[in-house]
Amino acid sequence: MGFTKPDLPNIDYADWKTRPRGERLRTVAEHWVEHGFGTPYAVYLLYIVKCALYVLGAAAVISLTPGLGAFAEITSWWTEPIVYQKLVVWTLLFEILGFGCGFGPLTMRFLPPIGGLLYFLRPGTLRLPPWPGKVPFTRGDERGIIDVALYAVVLGSGIWALLAPGHGAAPVDGSYVGLLDPTVVVALVVALGVLGLRDKTVFLAARSEHYLLMLLMFFVPFADMVIGFKLVMLALWWGAATSKLNHHFGHVVAVMMSNSPVMRIKWLERKMYRNPPQDLRPSRIPALLAHGGTMVEYLVPAYLVFLGHGGPLTWAAIIFMAVFHLHIISTVPMGVPLEWNIFFIFSLFYLFGHYGYLHVSGLRSPLVLALILFSTLVVILGHVRPQWVSFLTSMRYYAGNWATSAWCFRGDAELKLEQQVTKSAALPITQLTKLYGPEIADILIQSGMGWRSMHTHGRALNGLIARAVDNEADYAIRDGEIVAGPLLGWNFGEGHLHNEQLLAALQRRCQFEEGEVRIVVLESQPIHRQRQAYRIVDARTGVVEEGYVLVEDMLARQPWPEPGDPFPVHPLRRADTRALPSARVR
């Protein structure tokens, strides 16, 4: 691996390209074990610089608060109550502008490395309303002047809040500049909420399940606000921990460790799997790490919120959780939620360290209780009915139990997306071809499919693709994540952004013929059922087949489909059996 050149499998491309898809996937899966995505060092440097800009930019902007203190005096004012409020606003803006999650090459964004504002300020780009048939004035899938104006209001009101002075008397001893007047974020909250009803992509890009919830805490007295912040953090930790009570998370840990730039010990990387290269199912080591991490997210935050009152044990718990999040950062997970984890680390020292004396038992605000109760109900609903709720708003992070999709393009169908859809960046295959040429571009795209195949749901997608199309050799197979990214302006593992709704919007613009574009949509596993629903959809004719797959079958498979061994499925409806190849059904 070089500074700008990716580490690729050692193959004869001309021969490799002629091999069946299963063999090509096996090549990139075996390469993943010791090399991960093969990311060039320049990419890691880019993310380090971006994280530094996030931290230094926040400190510089917050230091402009009248009466707070100069940038160089940060040690004297970082504990001011207004600092955390402004950090929440800063981070929300950082995310919604496109510089946070979903930024850069690890989300298949190269030139330019951001989406965000390049899309959300551009009329004519795609938008996906969450409930177009139920919420008035939200129908349609094209961004208009209203959407651009609402986004501009979010940005403008956020900047206004960042530059606003403190308001009122100092809430605690040792503070000087007061708190933000909550009226300065009213426009931000309202505009983001209305915008979210018209476009779920922007709402999710702001990480509203976290930062919007915290913005609403600004409307209560200081002590209740800090306790509310702590409870939001607890909901994030516990929601994530609950989502990991599954059989998928061990695969995620193995894949993350293989891609970690700080773990480049080949024998240790191989230990993450049972018997590489023949058997690439996770070994007991990532399974133990997975269960250990889940217990950490339950127990340590519970101690901090309910039992911690300062002192050595509290600080030990704070440092332990900080190291936990530093470890997540060090693996550079796909989707790169790096700033989000930095925010967690700062929150640990600020909320549970400096303001550890504000105990949850002192909560008096009914608004905080109502907000926490509402978010808890959303989390529960997302675990039980994942098809109704985004994995982000239901706080199901890192668990490997995600809604996903695979897109199959025949002929020049993919080129139609390039030519007939308004966007601000080319498709990933086009960007990579400009950077590295067509051969390396194809290998890198297939490596992305290999990454997906290393997860449990990738096994199911591989089998379902064979049911979706007659001849796989006629199709270019793409992960739905990298299809949605350049079309919507943001992507971060949210499979509900590249399902039938996006397909229908593209069909209205591209008018695909029957069989020209087919997608396989795989929903998340409900927490109480060991199966995942799927749908095969044709862009022109609609649902071709729907049914479900069993988790136990995904766990038993390798990351590549074996010839003559179709994935066992349980169809519930086949709308067009003539269009489907034969397959064994159990």
Verbal overview:
- This protein has helices at 13-18, 21-35, 41-62, 74-77, 81-96, 117-120, 145-163, 186-198, 200-205, 211-216, 222-243, 249-259, 266-270, 284-307, 312-330, 338-354, 366-384, 413-420, 428-436, 438-453, 456-468, 480-488, 500-510, 551-556; strands at residues 273-275, 279-282, 404-410, 475-479, 517-522, 531-538, 542-550, 570-574.
- It has 586 residues and is α+β, with helices and mostly antiparallel strands.
- Strand 5 (517-522) and strand 6 form a beta hairpin.
- Helix 5 (81-96) packs antiparallel against helix 7, helix 7 packs antiparallel against helix 8 (186-198) and helix 14 runs antiparallel to helix 15 (312-330).
- The two termini are 44 Å apart.
- 48% of the residues are buried.
Average pLDDT, all residues: 92
Helix content: 40-55%
How many DSSP helices?
24
Instruction: Please give the largest β-sheet.
Output: 6 strands, antiparallel
Strand order of the largest sheet: 4-3-5-6-7-8
Shape: globular
Strand percentage lies at 5-15%
- Gyration radius (Cα, Å) is 24 Å
Distance between the termini: 44 Å
By helix and strand content, what is the structural category?
alpha+beta
Poorly predicted sequence stretches spanning 5 or more consecutive residues = 576-586
Number of strands: 8
What does the secondary structure layout of this molecule look like, with pairings?
Elements: H1 13-18, H2 21-35, H3 41-62, H4 74-77, H5 81-96, H6 117-120, H7 145-163, H8 186-198, H9 200-205, H10 211-216, H11 222-243, H12 249-259, H13 266-270, E1 273-275, E2 279-282, H14 284-307, H15 312-330, H16 338-354, H17 366-384, E3 404-410, H18 413-420, H19 428-436, H20 438-453, H21 456-468, E4 475-479, H22 480-488, H23 500-510, E5 517-522, E6 531-538, E7 542-550, H24 551-556, E8 570-574
Antiparallel strand pairs: 1-2, 3-4, 3-5, 5-6, 6-7, 7-8
